Amino acid sequence: MAENKKSFVLYADLLSVVKKIVESDRLNNTNYGGELFLIILEYVNDLNPIPINFIVELAFEPIKQQLKRDLIKWSEFRLKQSDNGKKGGRPKKDIPFIENPENPSLNLESQKSLNVNVSVNDNVNDSVSVSNMHTHTGILGIDYILSYQDTSEEFKSMYKEEFYKSWLTINRYLNEECKYLRTWNDQITIAQYKMIYDKISKGEYSIQQAKQALSDLDGSKQAKEKYNSVYHGFNTYIKFILKNV
């Protein structure tokens, strides 16, 4: 969060998302709702949080991107206000007085200045999936799924359905075939996998080679001490595979 900025907005519509997460928490004796709220607070306090698992990361990612965009807007507004102040204030002809029906004592321009704040995306879903893809509690950590079409527009603008299918598939592979890697604290994030996916799409290596790199990394019991994250270890092992092709 920017210096001297001490607040951000949570919209009422976020209730539906949090409610679903909490209901799942109650059934499964988990605490993803609390983890999501904690990571939001840690993020706006510049603590660089790392999601504890796939579900929390998936729910938080669109929120984080929205926070970034809103912070940029807020910073641009502050800079503009500062420039106007150095010029002795904006000329009155640039600020026509238009009555604000919600508060007649303020013109619309002044009202806007009171409302500038960082907002949290209120449409992010707690979990997403492809409608015809089989999954279960052991993979996603919850007992219900949503189709890609039911995810937020914000999420769809960031990730296409084809990529999302691949993201779910690689997570299923990690859960079923790379159980040792799943004990690491720093898992491959969705943003990191997007970089892997793009390289696969460009033909730099295949999905089979990517899975082989993960499997080889999983088979090295010393790797956890050597690499600071699964993604770090993956990059080393994929380079080794490509070198020996």
Structural notes for this entry:
The chain is mostly helical. The chain folds into two domains: 123 residues, no CATH class; 87 residues, no CATH class. The chain is built from eleven helices and two strands, in the order βααααβααααααα. The chain has a two-stranded parallel ribbon with strand order 1-2. The longest helix is centred in the N-terminal third of the chain and has 33 residues. The chain is globular and about 65 Å long.
Overview features:
mainly alpha, 245 residues, 2 domains, globular, 56% helix
Quote the average pLDDT: 74
Distance between the termini: 46 Å
Main-sheet strand order equals: 1-2
Low-confidence stretches: 92-145
Structural class: mainly alpha
Topology:
Layout: E1 8-9, H1 15-28, H2 32-44, H3 54-86, H4 108-115, E2 118-119, H5 137-140, H6 153-158, H7 161-177, H8 190-201, H9 207-218, H10 223-226, H11 230-243
Parallel strand pairs: 1-2
Helix pairs in contact: 2-3, 9-11
